[in-house]
Amino acid sequence: MSPRPSRRALIGAAALTPALGLAAWRRPEGAPLDPPTMTTVATLADAARAQGRYYGAAVRAEQLRENAGLRAAVLRDCQVLTPEIHLKWNSLEWRKGEFNFAPVDDLLAFSQRHGMEVRGHTLLWDQGTPGWARQDMLQRRDWSLMSGHLERVLKRYAPRITDWDVINEPIDTEAGAAGLRRNVFHQAFGPTYIERVLEEARAHAPQAHLVINDYGFEYDNPVDQARRKAIVALARRLRASGAPLDGIGVQAHLDLSKGPLAVEGLRDMTRRLIDEGLEVTITELDVKESSFHGSAAARDQKVADETRRYLETMLAFPQVRGVVTWGLSDRFSWLSEPPQRLHADAPLNRGLPYDADYRPKAMHHALSEALRLTA
Ligand code: XIL
Q: 16 CA to middle of ligand 1, Å?
């Protein structure tokens, strides 16, 4: 079997270029000459790199293009970028046969210019499937629609993108069937759609690191507990059948309303996944606030404490290959969009490393320290 990239390989290109740290930081057009963040805070890229890991963030191409402050933060902290929406099927092909590759191409060009990698998020997601494809799949149950999509995206991008969230959010322990979400793929093709998709992904991207990505593993409640069991069971089933699965992505959308983190549960799940020969990536870290009361500093401290506790638990495993936050600045967080944001006047959620004015917060410091921990 051909070797596939380990956690070091994904950052190989970045590792060969000069560090993305202070020395290599280039002032993007229009950025303030001397942003306060540049001199006082260690970069997350440096912290991660020191342990052979990577740090990255989800971004949108147009946000990066239009906001010098965001660009500066990305350039100094990130080795990896995840397209927040552009690789989803409904973004690539909103209308059948009309393709919109430009935003992904832009992000790839940006990342290449700056020695970064891009994560492939995501080939298949129920919520990211265009209506026409959904209808077509349910009516005709024609696999060629799936094959065509996988082939098109991977042929175009797999040579450049080596880490793929092949299937996003396949687990559902509440309304699912044997732990699997009754998503459009399950409804049209049955539970083995997962193996079939992985096989095809491997065929088109033999060198890529293939991941199943999911959420809801972090807290001590019956649902998260069942979800931890379900992801381990799925991983076991797939590995036992020889399906080409290399890793699990844990989204890690933390939530301050859900009580203490299930530290033991997380350790146990991660250990079991690793025992199956899998690597683990933290793919969408952010912290949802439960109360917007108190000073910004007090809120930021809670967010930072939760981040630190979570990362200290997960990064104790050397097989956890990297950390991606779902955004970088509170200015652009999905937690401040509906339906996560309950009403338009609600304060911005402060669950990302930088505030809305691109100043690093306590969460940045927590990330930087946790990434430095030796596994
Ligand atoms: C979200 C984006 O952040 C939103 O902007 C978009 O409207 C919907 O998708 N889990 C995932 C991500 O895997 O793809 C989701 O991203 C957030 C939840």
A: 31
Query: For residue 40, how far is its CA from the centre of ligand 1 (angstroms)?
Result: 32
CATH number for the domain spanning 235: value is 3.20.20.80
Dump pLDDT digits (tens) for 72-123: 999 999 999 999 999 999 999 999 999 999 999 999 999 999 999 999 999 9
Tell me if 15 is assigned to some domain. Answer: no
Residue 39 CA to ligand 1 center (angstroms) comes to: 32
The answer, as to whether pTM is greater than 0.85, is yes
In a domain, 278, yes or no: yes
Parent domain of 109: 22-371
In a domain, 153, yes or no: yes
Closest ligand 1 atom to the C-alpha of 337? 5
Identify which of 10, 333, 331 has the alpha carbon closest to the alpha carbon of residue 165: 10
List, as one string, the DSSP characters of 84-129: SSTTSHHHH-SBTTB---HHHHHHHHHHHHTT-EE-EEEEEEGGGS
In a domain, 328, yes or no: yes
